[in-house]
Amino acid sequence: MGENLQQIIYVTRRYPAEVVGLLLIFGAGFLSLHVQLRMVRAGYKTSSSVFWNPWTALGGYLNMRAKYDWSPWPVYLITACLILGTIVLVFGLSRP
User: Fold this and answer.
1) Using CB atoms within 10 A of its CB, is residue 64 exposed (0-12), middle (13-18) or buried (19+)?
2) In total, how many domains does the chain have?
3) The whole model's pTM is what?
4) DSSP state string for 63-76
5) pLDDT tens for residues 14-71?
């Protein structure tokens, strides 16, 4: 267990931008699943096409939020995390 922790610490110190970028992208994915689950529980019919084009589900959430009195912030946070995570990841990978 201690050796694995040392490896994780080494990678985090050596490649901080890549780790932060990946964490932001994974966070956006987790929030996207949360939004989709909320929509399914409200009766929104989803299909496998949501995984190929998640923007349709996020747009559907924004359309449904007024009816169910939901906050729009999860969609805004997903978009910000995805864009920022991609920028940070590309920046980290482009460094020598």
Assistant:
1) middle
2) 1
3) 0.82
4) HHHHHHT--SHHHH
5) 999 999 999 999 999 899 888 888 888 888 776 666 566 667 778 888 888 888 899 9
- What's the token pair of residue 87? 């920028």
Structure tokens at 4: 């694995």
Range of the domain at 16: 2-94
Q: Are 78 and 92 in contact (CB under 8 A)?
A: no
CB neighbour list of residue 72: distance below 8 Å, 6 or more residues apart? 62, 65
Hey, CA dihedral for 89, 87, 27, 29, is it positive or negative?
negative
The whole-number pLDDT of residue 80 equals: 96
